[in-house]
Task: structure prediction
Amino acid sequence: MSQGIYLGLRAVIATSIGFLVTHASDFSVQPSASLILEGWSLFDGGVETGETSLALLHLGNDFSFGATTQAHIGSFFFSGDNDVDAFTRDFGAYSNPITDSRYILFTAWLQSAFNDSTFKWEQLAADESFFVSETGSLFINANFGAIPIVSANVAAPIFSVRTLGAEHKYNVQQGCLQFGANAGDPGPGDKYDHGFNWSAGGDAGYFLILEKGLEYQLGPERNGVVQSGTYYHTGSFDSFQSSEQSKGMASFYAIVDQAISDTGAGFLRIGHNPDSKRSVVDRYLDIGSAWRLFPNRRHQDLFGIAYSYTRFSDSYTGLERLASNSRSEQVVEFAYSTQIANLWKIQPSPQWIIDPANATEDCLVGGLRFFREF
Result:
C-alpha cells in the first residue's frame, strides 16, 4: 500500500478510536463462531476419480456503542484440500468455502446509523451486501454466491479476499439504494495473505458498485424484492485479442427474490458484461427455488433445486481453447438442509456440472456439509 493510503487508514483508525472512547459507557460485545465441515466425491465424469474434505472456522465479535453505532471484526481459518477443480476441472467452484487462504482477517467495520441511512467504514467483501439472493444462499456451489460477471472479470473484494472501503445505504420508500467503494486489488488470497495485501489506485484501481432494491407484494404471503445494480472497476485490463491494455470494466445485473407461497420462494439473477474483448464471462443466469417440506413439524428444513448458466466471451474461448469445446458451463444443484442433534445442520449437495470448462465429460459430484453456529 502507498504512504497516502497508510496515512488515510491511520486517520480513520484514530477517528474511530476517539469515537469509541467517547461512547465507552454504552459499550457491549457479543462473540460468535461458526464451523463448516465438508466431504466431497466425484461420482462420474470429470478427469479422474477423487475425494476431498475441508473445514472452515469463522470467529467474530459484534460490538455495540449504543443505538446508532455498531462494529464487527471477524477472521476465518481454513483447512483442507483447496485444489478445487482437481477432478472436476470446472470453471466455477462446487463448494463456496474453498480458498487458498489459510487464516485471514476477513471483516472489520464500523457502522453509524442515521434517520434514514447507514454509513459503514469497512474491510469487507462486496458479496456480503451486494448481488445477494436470500433464497439462493441455500446453495453451496460458488456460482450462487458472488455472481460470476463480478468474480470472473475483475479483482473484486469477495470471499475470501476483501479490501478497505466504505458503504452507504439509503432507505427509501419500499426499498433502499446502496453504494460501495473499495480498493481495486484485494491481494492474492494465497496462504501468505492474511488480509492486508490489498492495493488501490494506478493499475489496481478502485471497485465502485451501485444497487437499487425495491420491495413489493403480489398478494398474501407473496412478498418480493427486485434489485438492479452495476459496478465499475477503474483498474487496467488486458485484451484477449491483442496486447492492448486499457482502463475500466463495467457490468450490470438484476435479481428477483419472490415468495411463491407461505412455504416456498424462488429467485432469479441475471448479469451482462458488454466488453467481450476483455471479459471472461459476458453473460450469466441462475434460477432456483427453496421449499419448507414439513412446515408444521420441521419448519427450519429446506429443500431446493437451482440452475446456473455461465457464458464465456468469444475472445476468452478463442484464446483459451477450452477442453469442453463449449462456450458455456452449466450447473444443476439439489440441496436439503436439516437440523440434527446439538444444533448441527446437515446438508447433502449433489451437483451435475454440464460442460465443465476443462474436461470433456460432464461431472456428477456430491458433497455433505455439516454446519454449526456457536
